[in-house]
Design a protein that fits this description.
The complex is a heterodimer of chains A (about 200) and B (about 550). Chain A has about 200 residues and is α+β, with helices and mostly antiparallel strands. Chain A has two domains: about 80 residues, Helix Hairpins (Orthogonal Bundle); about 110 residues, Immunoglobulin-like, CATH 2.60.40. Chain A is about 35% helix and about 30% strand. Chain A has three helices and ten strands. In chain A, strands 3-2-1-5-8 form a five-stranded mixed sheet, with no helix packed on it. A five-stranded mixed sheet of chain A has the order 4-10-9-6-7, with helices on one face. In chain A, a hairpin with a 2-residue loop joins strand 1 and strand 2. In chain A, helix 1 runs antiparallel to helix 2. The two termini of chain A are about 35 Å apart. With about 550 residues, chain B is an all-alpha fold. Chain B has one domain: Up-down Bundle (Cytochrome C Oxidase, Chain A). Helices cover about 65% and strands about 0% of the residues of chain B. Chain B has 16 helices and no strands. In chain B, helix 8 packs antiparallel against helix 11. The radius of gyration of chain B is 23 Å and the shape is globular. Classes of the chains: A alpha+beta (about 200), B mainly alpha (about 550). At the A-B interface, helix 1, helix 2, strand 7 and strand 9 of A face helix 3, helix 8, helix 9, helix 10 and helix 11 of B. Bound molecules: copper (II) ion. The site of copper (II) ion (CU) has 8 residues of chain A, from loops.
Chain lengths: ~200, ~550
């Protein structure tokens, strides 16, 4: 299973489970009808078809019900998303620079690293930049992704709640070694982080 | 065709295959303006490209069997997936159904002798061939095969040293081929319907082609201009999209998807048209909700042109734009759902014949439902942030595109093959290969949903060992799928060469006009232009018989 290291990830997963539930229901419904009809109204069993030109009531029902369902799903996705889109003002800022084919992280005191060290339970805002082509900053365990492009001011944020180390991918195809362009996010305790930040 | 005996048609007339025009032999085909011959020209060219793209797909999956290098290096792999995408999208999926079945059957279903502009029709085939030649040049020229992905994202497509100019020109030319076909069909549908065929007496496959034609004509020029602009930027270093020259890469993404998202409907809507015909014919009854199906094609064409931004939720658009694009994306789901429900309802109280085309029809509904539902997940903003650019997307669009256009293409070919060639195929083989294909398809593409949810980025040559088991399953699926395709190709080639001849006009109990012309059709389709007095799917015998009892 995929790690669930932020509160946001938990929200996304809850939404996912609801939507998967709705989808499985409709898939099972349609598939059951297809198979049942194909057997029950098979030519051998039912040599004579009955013409049915349509049914206005049914058309209305199967227009309105899906409309309500998709509007509900839309709202679920939007309400999670808007949380991700508004980083808290007090967030600690880390600059992430993508280039073919590596990540570089720069902290407020000028310290640079190619592994992303972050303290646990703290709001972190990542400002994204690229020196060449489009890349994308992707941490599956946090369920966040944002493109890193030259001369654009993209950013994202997270608050990691679980200590550990997680994979950080480049998700936008960027040429020869795109698939090697991954590193790690290390979520450590506040003390450990401060020691690391102020060490040489 | 393969042997020299005359393929006389049902009434003993000379068929379009044996028709003697100005030229004979091969010239009689490549200079013919007969819509049916042009359809066959397309069939040969498009199927060849399809098989090449399948081979590339096979190699991609083989490479991904193990992490690191399995058969080729990263540069070759990147060229493989780029070419697989370009060939599948521009040379197979977009033209397949309109250019083959549309060309062959649209005039016949309307009661016409040809399309509105027969010469333009032949010209569009030549554009297609030239576009294909440009792709071949791009592969073999010294710079190396293109490696930008079929989306040509800037800045990468400006920076790469591979043969981008020929690749972009190919897409540009193929776009024009598509515009010409679309325009031709729109005019044909407006002007060439038989007397008495009002809009709502027109069969639903022409309706689908009509909706598609408008998308082709309205949005294809945008990609044409955009691709030209990249060429201008590459050659003259004018800053349009490349940030280092002062351009905006997000602008490029907008322009690209303004075309390429509706292009999905250029692929899917004609396929839905084919499936609508198949479902009706093999249920032997009138279609359920004729108008709902016709209008939902138009609704898909309209809404589908307004949702391109959902490819860019992580690219840095404003929250307002993300809100609107996500909402509109959900609205496209509604006409798609309406179609699925109407097809399913058509089966109710039918007299269902599980012939090979019908198996493809039913599988289409099943696969399209999975593709559509996973599309709903991707339209959901928060889920898309996690899932975009992972293999989840790859799984989704293969369900939607292969599951619809691919299945409608094969199913449609079984459906109309005897009509087109006056030969029958081996039904047993067709049914066996169908089941192998369906199983292989799901083993190949379903693991991509799981991997994608677990965070596996797409377009990745290498991957972390934790994803390997899913890759192995998927690759095994590709072998099963290809086995099925080999049997299918064998079935058709065998049928062409030595299939039993048939002149039966209506071998499947259809009601539309192609079942009232000879098998194979004559050069001019109709001795006399028919006069239409009723709907396209009346199936009057159902009512007659029930009155007798
Ligand atoms: Cu990258």
């Amino acid at each position: 299973m995929i790690a669930q290291a932020t509160n946001f990830a938990q929200n996304v997963d809850n939404t996912f489970i609801i939507i998967v539930g709705i989808c499985v229901f409709f898939l099972v419904l349609i598939t059951t009808l297809l198979i049942t009809f194909a057997i029950k109204y098979n030519k051998k069993r039912n040599p004579k078809a009955v013409n049915i030109h349509g049914n206005i009531k049914l058309e209305i029902i199967w227009t309105i019900i899906p409309t309500l369902i998709v509007l509900y799903i839309f709202w679920l996705g939007w309400s999670d998303y808007i949380e991700l889109a508004t980083p808290p003002k007090d967030a600690m800022v880390i600059n992430a620079t993508a280039s073919m084919w590596q990540w570089k992280f720069t902290y407020s005191n000028g310290k640079q690293a190619d592994t992303l060290y972050v303290p646990v339970n703290e709001n972190i805002k990542i400002k994204l930049n690229s020196t060449d082509v489009s890349h994308s900053f992707y941490i599956p365990a946090f369920r966040i992704k944002r493109d890193a492009m030259p001369n654009t001011n993209n950013s994202t944020w997270f608050n990691a709640e679980k200590l550990g180390s997680y994979t950080l991918f480049c998700a936008e195809y960027c040429g020869l070694n795109h698939s090697k362009m991954y590193t790690e996010v290390k979520v450590v305790t506040k003390d450990k982080f401060n020691n690391w930040l102020n060490s040489e | 065709m393969a042997d020299n005996s005359i393929a006389i048609s049902s009434k003993g007339h000379e068929s379009y295959i044996d028709h003697k025009g100005k030229h004979s032999g091969l010239l009689g085909w490549i200079f013919s303006t007969d819509h049916k011959r042009i359809a066959i020209l397309y069939l040969v060219a498009i199927s060849s490209w399809f098989l090449i793209a399948v081979l590339l797909g096979f190699l991609i999956r083989l490479e991904l069997l193990t992490p690191g290098e399995t058969i080729v290096g990263a540069q070759t792999y990147n060229a493989f997936f780029t070419l697989h995408g370009i060939i599948m999208v521009f040379l197979f999926v977009i033209p397949a159904i309109p250019a083959i079945f549309g060309n062959f059957f649209l005039p016949i279903m309307l009661g016409a002798k040809d399309v509105a502009f027969p010469r333009l029709n032949l010209f569009s085939w030549y554009l297609y061939i030239i576009g294909g030649i440009f792709v071949i040049i791009a592969i073999f020229l010294p710079g190396g095969a293109p490696d930008s992905g079929w989306t040509f994202y800037i800045p990468y497509s400006i920076r790469t040293s591979t043969n981008m100019i020929f690749t972009l020109s190919a897409a540009f030319i193929l776009g024009f081929s598509s515009i010409v076909t679309g325009l031709n069909f729109i005019v044909t549908i407006h002007r060439m319907r038989a007397p008495g065929m009002s809009w709502f007496r027109m069969p639903l496959f022409p309706w689908a082609l009509y909706a598609t034609g408008w998308i082709q004509v309205l949005v294809t020029p945008i990609i044409g201009i955009t691709l030209l602009l990249i060429i201008v930027e590459r050659v003259f270093r004018v800053g349009l999209f490349d940030p280092s020259l002062g351009g905006d890469p997000v602008l490029y993404q907008h322009l690209f998807w303004i075309y390429s998202h509706p292009a999905v409907y250029i692929m899917a809507v004609p396929a839905m048209g084919v499936i609508t015909e198949i479902i009706t014919v093999y249920s032997h009854k009138t279609i359920f909700g004729y108008k709902a199906i016709a209008f939902s094609s138009l609704a898909i064409a309209l809404f589908g042109s307004l949702v391109w931004g959902h490819h860019m939720f992580s690219a840095g658009m404003s929250d307002t734009a993300n809100f609107i694009f996500s909402l509109l994306t959900f609205l496209v789901a509604i006409p798609s759902a309406i179609k699925v429900f109407n097809w399913t309802a058509t089966l109710y109280k039918g007299s269902i014949d599980l012939e090979p085309p019908m198996l493809y029809g039913l599988a289409f509904i099943f696969l399209f439902t999975i593709g559509g539902l996973t599309g709903i997940m991707l339209g959901t903003l928060s889920l898309d942030i996690h899932l975009t650019d992972t293999t989840f997307v790859v799984g989704h669009f293969h369900y939607v595109i292969f599951g619809t256009t691919g299945f409608a293409f094969i199913g449609g070919l079984y459906h109309w093959f005897p009509k087109m060639f006056g030969r029958t195929y081996n039904k047993k083989l067709a049914k066996i290969s169908f089941w192998i294909l369906l199983v292989g398809f799901n083993i190949l593409y379903f693991p991509m949903f799981v991997m994608g949810w677990l965070g596996m980025p797409r377009r990745s040559y290498d991957y972390l060992p934790e994803y390997q088991s899913y890759h192995v399953i998927s690759t095994i699926g590709s072998w099963i799928l290809i086995l099925a395709l080999i049997i299918i190709v064998y079935t058709f080639i065998k049928a062409l060469r030595s299939g039993e001849r048939t002149h039966e006009m209506n071998y499947c109990g259809g009601e539309t006009l192609e079942w009232k012309v000879e098998t194979p059709p004559t050069h001019e389709n109709f001795d006399e232009i028919p006069v239409i007095t009723g709907g396209p799917y009346d199936y009057k015998q159902n009512e007659l018989e029930s009155e007798v009892e």
